[in-house]
């Protein structure tokens, strides 16, 4: 098998898995995956990523709880504003989606660190090239690439993942407090990680001609 077909098989074979066996994820597994994550490209090699691996089921359960608590708070708030249908959908549809990590033996919290570089210090900031928000996004971009490396490496290692922003959208501040994450870090996403207990169907994708415009 060529390198290309191997890589393509790994890319096409990865699925978001939400059911896991009881088998724990080892610290060695995690270190291997982070070793792959850290070779992602990043703007001026700024490596704007950090990871927290939660291998403690009680702590994962606590993160699930705080996600539900925040979700119920938002649902009550929506209901009080006359948005009953949306509140119901939030609880019934988004709730299980945002807490799909609850059965996983490991949760990787993917952080984006502030983007810093000589370009930024010497050129961009003095001329106020872009707003601060753009630099926050710049950190997120590289952090996403590292997350994808991690997920592909996990799949190639026989592990399964599910990238999730649900708990971040609902409870980022509480998550940061609970895990003692410094204020200047953004929680990019969390990745549920474990040994797969299901083989989800391959979800369809937009066709290549529908998403590609070639200029020759
Ligand atoms: C940015 C992002 C956020 C996501 N958030 C969630 C989530 O909160 N809960 C969940 O169960 N899946 C989440 N997913 C997984 C998607 O549902 C999944 O990637 C998509 O349906 C395609 O399925 P596949 O990954 O199996 O190809 C997220 C994926 C991405 C990229």
Which features characterize this protein?
binds flavin mononucleotide, 216 residues, alpha+beta, globular, single chain, NADH Oxidase, 51% helix, 8 helices, 4-stranded antiparallel β-sheet
Structure description:
This protein has a single domain, classed as NADH Oxidase, CATH 3.40.109.10. It has eight helices and four strands; from the N terminus they run ααβααβααβαβα. It has a four-stranded antiparallel β-sheet, sandwiched between helices. Helix 3 runs antiparallel to helix 4 and helix 3 packs across helix 7. The relative contact order is 0.22. The model has no long low-confidence stretch (mean pLDDT 97). The site of flavin mononucleotide has 14 residues, from helix 4 and strand 3.
Question: What overall form do the CA principal axes indicate?
Answer: globular
SSE succession: HHEHHEHHEHEH
How does CATH name the architecture? 3-Layer(aba) Sandwich
Give the CATH class.
Alpha Beta
Q: What is the average per-residue confidence, as pLDDT, rounded to a whole number?
A: 97
CATH homologous superfamily (4th level) name: NADH Oxidase
**Helix content percent band:** 40-55%
Neighbour order of strands in the largest sheet: 1-2-4-3
In this entry the ligands are: flavin mononucleotide
Number of DSSP strand runs: 4
Cα radius of gyration in angstroms: 19 Å
Which runs of at least 5 residues are low in confidence (pLDDT < 50)?
A: none
By DSSP (H or I, 4+ residues per run), the number of helices equals: 8
End-to-end gap: 32 Å
What structural category do the secondary elements indicate? alpha+beta
CATH topology: NADH Oxidase
Largest sheet: 4 strands, antiparallel
User: What is the number of domains?
Assistant: 1
Fraction of residues in β-strands: 5-15%
């Amino acid at each position: 098998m060529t390198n290309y077909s191997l890589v393509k098989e790994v890319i096409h074979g990865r699925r978001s898995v939400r059911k896991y066996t009881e088998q724990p994820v080892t610290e060695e597994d995690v270190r291997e995956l982070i070793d792959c994550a850290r070779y992602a490209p990043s703007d001026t090699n700024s490596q704007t990523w950090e990871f927290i691996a939660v291998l403690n089921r009680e702590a994962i359960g606590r993160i699930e709880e705080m996600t539900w608590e925040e979700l119920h708070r938002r649902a009550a708030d929506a209901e009080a504003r006359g948005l009953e249908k949306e509140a119901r959908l939030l609880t019934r549809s988004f709730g299980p989606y945002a807490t799909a990590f609850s059965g996983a033996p490991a949760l990787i919290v993917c952080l984006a660190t502030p983007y810093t570089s000589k370009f930024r210090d010497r050129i961009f900031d003095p001329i106020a090239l872009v707003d601060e928000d753009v630099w926050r996004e710049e950190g997120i971009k590289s952090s996403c690439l590292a997350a994808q490396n991690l997920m592909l490496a996990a799949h190639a290692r026989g592990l399964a993942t599910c990238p999730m922003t649900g708990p971040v959208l609902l409870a980022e501040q509480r998550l940061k407090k609970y895990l003692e994450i410094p204020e200047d870090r953004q929680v990019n996403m969390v990745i549920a990680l474990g040994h797969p207990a299901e083989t989800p169907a391959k979800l369809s994708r937009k066709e290549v001609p529908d998403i590609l415009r070639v200029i020759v």
